[in-house]
Amino acid sequence: MFEFYFSGSSSTPHDYHYHDFYEIFFLLSGESKSFFIEDKTYVAKANDLIFIHKDLLHKSNVVSTEYKRIIIHFSDDYVGSSIISEMKSLFGNRIYTPENPDAVKTHVMNIANEKDKNDAFSLDLIKYSFLSLLAYCVRNLSSYLASPSNPAIERLTRHINNNFYNKLSLQQASEMLNMSQGHLSRLFAKNTGFSFREYITVIRIKNAKYQLKTTKKPIHQIADDCGFNDSNYFSTIFKEATGLSPLEYRRENRK
Question: What CATH number does the domain located at 2-139 have?
Fold first, then answer.
């Protein structure tokens, strides 16, 4: 699987999402853009590439001006196991600042040009150009890893990720971080793009989807395992988030 998108965008933020394929976000132009990935906030500037590993929750936040971007999606089987092991450093650091942006743009534009041609050679040349892009980035690794905008929020998001099945409250979090609930609530939203309660629900639903796909546990047990004490409430929230009931989601993803 390989997908390539080029677009301009306004200041509209993107909703949170995660998927079972890799993503590369190339910021061609525009002001710095904030990304929340897994449990940290990163800031990318023009010519930076953001490497997002599969299955990681991520969301881009509002920017004040328009920008141009390229997004590439690809799967394990597209690049092969040997390439996957070589590119771990890119997806581990997540933000990559090339020493020579024009070299990166050349590889990317080669892909774009071949997509437009769409002849008998296009698919092979697209793959060649894409693998060349990965090889260039690995060989010329000069990464810029932005610090999270607030270490306390990183600590809290990690705590939620590791304890989503337990009872979690803003009061508990504020006591853990020794700050007021109001201040923590504002700080959390500013740094992640989520409200405190919304983030907990997203993480719980994400883990519930995984269990529905990979286990035969009954719905009420999955609800309890993911921090929902009421299975009816879990079913309601799950359908609001996915458009399917837990049972429908399980059936759809086991076909």
Answer: 2.60.120.280
